[in-house]
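As a warm-up, study this chain.
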Amino acid sequence: MGKNLIFLPIIAAVVLVQLLTAWTGSAYYLTQLTMSAYYSLLIVGLCVLMGYAGQISLGHAGFFAIGGYLSAALTTRNLMPYAGQWPVRLLDSLGCLQAGQDIYGEPLLVVLPWVACIIAVLVALGISFVLGIPVLKLKGHYLAMATLGFGIIIYRIVLASAYFGEADGISGVPGFMLVPGLQISGDAAWRVPNYYIAWTVLLLAVLLLRHLIDSRVGRALRAIHGSPEAADAMGVDTARFKLQTFMLSAVFSALAGVLLTHYNGGIGPSEAGVMKSVRYVAIVAVGGMANLWGALAMGIVLNFLSLRGFFGTYDDAVFGAILIAIMLFAPNGILSLQLGRVWQYLPFLRRKKPAAKEA
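Now compare it with the structure written out below.
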């Protein structure tokens, strides 16, 4: 119970930020902080995969896109022409569909956001299971290249598919009604409630991961990260633990995609781009791969700066440079930064040692 007390100052800071923005009349900052919280949901899931299971993934933007695109398509594509077919009739009989009218007054039949969210997350879970079985047998840069290939496949599918809107993506995604009177929506009227919804989801996810890390499963993951061979020798089922962690991180990514898509009211192919995956890896690396709080803090800060346009058109270049710098100078995260290592790579700044006196 004592370990959970660390959440109290975070909750206090979240409330304080909201009160300050209301007092200063700068509540629009809450929009970027809400989006940062959803992106950080992906980051903390990836942190557990990279930092505790020791698996590098460059394809998590693909899982994010699977969640976002599927939920967007299911809640906007009209099923009325297929109303006579048994899958649609079955969904209708189960109360999973919602009837209405489109902007032209024509009848509209779509999937409810709750159902679309569950379908999207289950599809991401299934794909991560099928992908993870062969891919997680690879190690090091081979694993990174394989997951990169998966991310490229998803990106090309959403970019080329008319069902997913091709280069335009999908817009007009409806709000996600959680309970009557409370929905995930980007409308200004819902700005403050959505800020708290996003942070509630994120902190619940962190709480879940904290308990996972401190459990027997977490100890097994750390053993796998240290030495898979030694963990195997100690009776740890490394293949099963790595696959389950991969699937868990994929679910976090897909859920983040679903929630952010409904908040933004749409999604585009850029969310599935390779540079998005590189960005997520860079944020986890700068926060510390085995440091959940560091990854959370960097996820909020760097995503907020990016969304505010702080890096301008050099956005992707900045994250690439951050990744290089962290790998060179602080591979265990920015909190472990050793300034002495900087001089190792900048020899022209090193002081020359005085020549030894000749005898």
